[in-house]
Amino acid sequence: MKKMGLDVGSKTIGVAISDALGWTAQGLTTIKWNESEIDSAYDELAKIISEHDIQEAVVGLPKNMNGSIGERGEASMLFADYLKEKFNLKIVLWDERLTTMAAERVLLEADVSRKKRKKVIDKMAASMILQGYLDSNQ
């Protein structure tokens, strides 16, 4: 059963998928969307879910450093509810504190240009979210 990891931002959604055994996460794509129009990512998500036979989605939950849920966390929870309703997926909210910063650090250490980093940072963060979840279940 494949799983999908999502790093949900206000303008982009990073997408990663697992292998069939649920051992590894690979960054797949970044979807451009408009958060105020929640259906704006529907078609691309539907295509990914169908093509990869996704049964479960791991949505990054950006908590504040003290563990509280802020505005971005609430937006991610709303999006998770949307996914569950529209696609009938099992949904897991995964603490994603610092994943985007970690992804940025990896890309900087790999000497990836700023322009290229901007293109891959979200799907890399999604991959880190999904891999953290997969590792916790093994």
From TrEMBL:
Could be a nuclease involved in processing of the 5'-end of pre-16S rRNA. The gene is ruvX. SUPFAM superfamilies: Ribonuclease H-like. GO terms for molecular function: hydrolase activity, acting on ester bonds; nuclease activity. Its main location: cytoplasm. It comes from Aquibacillus koreensis. One of its GO terms (cellular component) is cytosol. Keywords: Cytoplasm, Hydrolase, Nuclease, Ribosome biogenesis. This is Putative pre-16S rRNA nuclease. The lineage of its organism: Bacteria, Bacillati, Bacillota, Bacilli, Bacillales. Coiled coil: none annotated. Residues 1-103 form the YqgF/RNase H-like domain. InterPro entries: RNaseH-like_sf (IPR012337), YqgF (IPR005227), YqgF/RNaseH-like_dom (IPR006641), YqgF/RNaseH-like_dom_sf (IPR037027).
